[in-house]
Design goal:
heterotrimer; A alpha+beta (133); B alpha/beta (116); C alpha+beta (334); B: alpha/beta; Transcription Regulator spoIIAA; five-stranded mixed sheet; 30% strand; C: 334 residues; alpha+beta; Methyltransferase, Methionine Synthase (B12-binding Domains), Chain A, domain 1; Phosphatase 2c, domain 1; 2 domains; five-stranded antiparallel sheet; elongated; PPM-type-like_dom_sf (chain C)
C-alpha cells in the first residue's frame, strides 16, 4: 500500500511545507537523522527549482515498499519551460550555474534512484527514490 | 571570468542598431560581444553599427567576432558599419584587408551627434 | 556506516576529552584521513561524532544534540559541493591527458621540412601561448624555389589547431601547381571559405625565394607585413601586399610583389604574437623589434629568430599572450 501526500509549490513558503512533509515521512519510514536531512535537502532543491523556474508545480511524497525494502519516493512536477539539454544539466559543474535545473546532480547524489522526464514547453517531472538500507 | 571589463550597450538611433562597446576585446571578453551580436545577426536587412570608440585594444579573437558578424548580417541582406576606430584598431582593419569590404569610420571623423 | 570507523573515532575522542593532549590531537589528525579514504561525507562525520558523544556522555543538554543536528543539515550542501569539485578535478585530469595526446598528434600531423636551398639560410621558431598552437608554418620545396606559408588562425586553442590540418592538406595539394604566391593564396582562400564556420578566419603570408634570381616574391592574406633588412643600407622596409583574410570572401584577389635579396639581406615573417607583444608598460614598439633584429644581423637566420624570441618573451615575463612565430629567410654571404 502506498501512503502519500503532496504540496503545491507556488510561494517560497511552500518549499518549507514540502521540506516539513518530507522530513516527517522520512522519519516515519525509519531513516536516520543524516538521511532525513539528505531527503529533505533533495526535496528543498526540487521545490526551489519549481519555484524559481517553473512558477508553480507540485511535490508528491510517497512511502514505498518493494521486495522487502522500504523507502521514500519524491515526484516533482511542473508545467514550466522544460529543460532543453538534460545531459548538460546532469553534469557536474552545472550546480554552480545558478540556472534552470541547477542542483540536479546534487539531488541525484543525495538519493538512490533518479529519473527526469522533460519536454520543452510542456514541463518537467523528476522522480527520485531513496531506500532504507 | 564572466564580467571581465567589457560592456556592450545597445541603443537604437534612426532604425540603426548601435552597439556601443566599452573595454578591451580579447579572447576572454570576445564571447560576451559575440553573444550580444548573435541575438540580432539573423534579422533580415539589419542596419547595425559597432561603435568601438571606447575600445583601446582588440586582438584577433575580437576581430574574428566582428568579421563573423559582418558575414552573418551581409548574408541576410543587412549592413554593418564599424565606427570610432583608434589608430591601432584601424591598422588592424587595414592589414587584414577588411577595410576594403567593411564600412569603417575612424575616430577623428566621428559625428558630434554620434555620441549620447 | 562503517562501524569500525565509528568505534575508533569514539576511542580517540574519549582519550582527548580526558587529557586534551596534543598527542591525541595528532592521532586524530592521522585518523581523519580515513574519512577521506573511505569517502565518508562531511554530514556523516558529524553524525559519527554525535553518536560517539552520545555513547560517552548521554546526559548532555538537549541544545548540544539539536545543534549537532543543525550542523548535519548545514554540511549536506558543503559535502555535495566538495564531491562535485572532486569529480570536476578528475574530469579535468582526463581532459589534460587528451590534450597531451592531441598536441602530439598535431606535431606529427603538421610536420614540415625546412628547405635546403642553395644560398639560402632559413631560421624559424613557433611557440604556442597555450598548449596548442594557432600559428602554423608550412615549407614547400621545389626546384630552385623555397617557399614558406606563415599562418595565424584567428582564435586560439583546439578549434584553431583543427583548422590547421585543413591548411596543411590544402598546401600538400600544391606540390605540382603553379606556386606563385598570389595563386597559392587564391587557392587556399577558396578551400578555407568553403570549409570553415563564419567566425573562423586565417591570416597568411606566403613568400617564395627563387635561388637563381635571388628574388623573394610574396603575397599576404590579411597578415602582418614582413620586414626586409637590407645589408647595404642597414634599414628595414615593410613588405606589405594587399589581400583579405582567408575565408571571408570567395572571390578575393591577392596582390603579389617581389624584392631582390642581396648578400646578407634577410626577410622576417611574423605573426601578431610578435608584433602585438604586450608588457605591463604597453605594447612593444615595432622599432624595438627592428633593433633586436639589427643587433644580430650578422648571425645565422636561426640565431636571429631565437634571439628575438628570447628577448621578447623576457620582456613579457615569459608569459606569452598569443602564439609566437617568426620565420627568417636570409641570403647567405659567400
Amino acid at each position: 500500500m502506498n501512503l502519500g501526500s503532496s504540496v503545491e509549490i507556488i510561494t517560497e513558503w511552500d518549499i518549507v511545507a514540502a521540506r516539513q512533509l518530507g522530513r516527517n515521512e522520512a522519519k516515519q519510514v525509519g531513516f536516520g537523522t543524516v538521511d532525513q536531512a539528505r531527503i529533505t535537502t533533495a526535496i528543498s532543491e526540487l521545490a526551489r527549482n519549481i519555484y524559481l523556474y517553473a512558477g508553480k508545480g507540485k511535490i508528491e511524497i510517497e512511502r514505498i515498499s518493494e521486495a522487502g525494502l522500504v523507502g521514500i519516493k519524491i515526484i516533482a512536477s511542473d508545467e514550466g519551460p522544460g529543460i532543453p539539454d538534460l545531459r548538460k544539466v546532469m553534469e557536474d559543474g552545472f550546480t554552480t550555474s545558478g540556472g534552470l535545473g541547477a542542483g540536479m546532480p546534487g539531488v541525484k547524489r543525495l538519493m538512490d534512484e533518479f529519473k527526469v522526464i522533460s519536454e520543452v514547453g510542456e514541463g518537467t517531472t523528476i522522480i527520485t527514490t531513496k531506500w532504507l538500507h | 571570468m564572466q564580467d571581465m571589463n567589457l560592456q556592450v550597450e545597445l541603443l537604437e538611433k534612426n532604425s540603426v542598431q548601435c552597439f556601443k562597446v566599452v573595454g578591451e576585446i580579447d579572447a576572454y571578453t570576445a564571447p560576451v560581444l559575440k553573444e550580444r551580436l548573435a541575438a540580432v545577426e539573423k534579422v533580415e536587412g539589419l542596419h547595425a553599427e559597432l561603435d568601438l570608440s571606447e575600445v583601446d585594444y582588440m586582438d584577433s579573437t575580437g576581430l574574428g567576432v566582428c568579421v563573423g558578424f559582418y558575414k552573418a548580417v551581409s548574408n541576410n541582406g543587412g549592413h554593418v558599419k564599424i565606427t570610432g576606430l583608434n589608430r591601432r584598431l584601424s591598422r588592424l582593419f587595414e592589414i587584414t584587408g577588411l577595410n576594403e569590404i567593411i564600412d569603417i569610420e575612424l575616430k577623428e571623423s566621428e559625428d558630434d551627434n554620434a555620441t549620447l | 556506516m562503517p562501524q569500525e570507523v565509528t568505534k575508533q573515532y569514539k576511542e580517540i575522542m574519549s582519550k582527548y576529552l580526558e587529557s586534551q593532549s596534543e598527542e591525541d590531537l595528532y592521532v586524530g589528525q592521522q585518523f581523519s584521513r580515513r574519512f577521506i579514504e573511505k569517502d565518508i561525507a562531511p554530514e556523516d562525520v558529524i553524525s559519527i561524532h554525535k553518536s560517539a558523544l552520545f555513547e560517552l556522555h548521554p546526559n548532555l543538554r538537549k541544545q548540544v544534540w539539536d545543534s549537532l543536528d543543525f550542523l548535519i543539515e548545514m554540511m549536506i550542501h558543503y559535502g555535495l559541493t566538495m564531491r562535485e569539485h572532486q569529480s570536476l578535478v578528475r574530469k579535468q585530469e582526463a581532459i589534460q591527458m587528451e590534450m597531451n595526446v592531441a598536441t602530439k598528434v598535431q606535431d606529427t600531423l603538421l610536420k614540415t621540412v625546412e628547405p635546403d636551398a642553395e644560398g639560402l639560410d632559413v631560421g624559424w621558431i613557433s611557440q604556442p601561448a597555450h598548449q596548442m598552437n594557432g600559428d602554423y608554418i608550412y615549407f614547400l620545396n621545389q626546384e630552385n624555389a623555397s617557399s614558406v606559408a606563415v599562418a595565424d588562425v584567428i582564435g586560439k586553442g583546439i578549434p584553431a589547431a583543427l583548422c590547421m590540418s585543413m591548411i596543411k592538406f590544402g598546401m600538400d595539394g600544391l606540390q605540382n601547381e603553379n606556386s606563385s604566391p598570389d595563386n597559392v593564396l587564391g587557392i587556399i582562400n577558396r578551400i578555407v571559405e568553403k570549409s570553415v564556420d563564419d567566425s573562423m578566419f586565417i591570416s597568411m603570408f606566403y613568400g617564395k625565394y627563387n635561388s637563381i634570381t635571388s628574388t623573394f616574391s610574396y603575397a599576404s592574406a590579411g597578415h602582418e607585413p614582413a620586414l626586409h633588412f637590407s645589408s647595404g643600407t642597414s634599414a628595414f622596409t615593410e613588405l606589405d601586399a594587399r589581400g583579405l583574410l582567408l575565408g571571408v570572401k570567395k572571390e578575393a584577389i591577392y596582390d603579389e610583389h617581389s624584392v631582390v635579396l642581396e648578400e646578407g639581406d634577410f626577410v622576417v615573417m611574423m605573426t601578431d604574437g610578435v608584433t602585438e607583444s604586450r608588457t605591463e608598460n604597453g605594447f612593444i614598439e615595432m622599432s624595438a623589434i627592428k633593433s633586436l633584429l639589427a643587433e644580430k644581423k650578422d648571425e645565422s637566420a636561426q640565431e636571429i629568430a631565437d634571439y628575438v624570441y628570447s628577448e621578447l618573451s623576457r620582456m613579457q615575463d615569459y608569459q606569452l599572450s598569443d602564439d609566437f612565430t617568426i620565420v627568417i629567410f636570409k641570403k647567405k654571404t659567400v
